[in-house]
Amino acid sequence: MDGVGSFGAGRAGATVDPIAFIFSLVVFASIVNEGYVNFGSERLHCVFNQNADACNYGVFMGMVGLLACSFFFLLDYKFSSISSVKDRKKAIMLEIGFSGVWTFLYFVSFCFLANQWSRTSPDDLPLNQGADAARAAITFSFFSIITWAGLTVRAVQKYLLGTDMTLFTTEHMDGGAPTQPYPSNSPVGATTETTETYQSPPFTENNAAPTYQVPIY
């Protein structure tokens, strides 16, 4: 069945929360702007225990998160114009899959950055340079776990809601034409004859012979 009236047609609000976009932006910007320091040379070192992989991973999560939020926001905006139920189903399943994977990857990001930050020596950060950016990246990585997990749950709920609507619509369309309790094709002004049979009231005998009173002379 391909129709606008089923599988998510009644979606209320966008699946992608703008908060997820903001959190990804904070993680990305924190590391890119202040996540690298130098030690008297032109070479920059990552503030997370001088581990370049930690900074690269954080930048990757923030950048892809921004792009994904933008893509799904556009998809939600165009969702009502998708007429195919199969395409709508694929779109919601894509949101579920990506949100679930991104929840896990942000969990890895939080653990990785927090671990590397705990191993960072104060001597590696002259004048505590980049410390605020590192803490911001770790904090908003944690918040992103909650945000993307919530988006996953909301996407699953929309998928289940769309499935129920599809089953409900299919059940009624595959069945026969609805029966009408009253005749609908009767001409105007015509008298409708009733074929209803009248039954005797309860607790009465239908086969009882009539009794006649004998006249008295």
Quote the beta fraction.
Answer: under 5%
- As a whole number of angstroms, the C-alpha radius of gyration is 35 Å
If you average the pLDDT, what whole number results?
Answer: 76
Distance between the termini: 86 Å
Structural class call reads: mainly alpha
Overall body shape: elongated
Number of DSSP strand runs: 2
Binned, the helix content reads: 55-70%
* Strand order within the widest beta sheet: 1-2
- Major sheet description: 2 strands, antiparallel
Low-pLDDT sequence parts: 1-6, 8-15, 167-181, 188-205
How does this model look, in words?
With about 220 residues, the protein is mostly helical. It has a domain at about 20-165. The chain has 4 helices and 2 strands, in the order αββααα. The chain has a two-stranded antiparallel sheet. Helix 1 (about 20-35) runs antiparallel to helix 4, helix 2 (about 50-80) packs antiparallel against helix 3 (about 85-120) and helix 3 runs antiparallel to helix 4. Mean pLDDT is about 75; it is low at about 1-5, about 10-15, about 165-180 and about 190-205. It comes from Labrus bergylta (ballan wrasse). Keywords: Membrane, Transmembrane, Transmembrane helix.
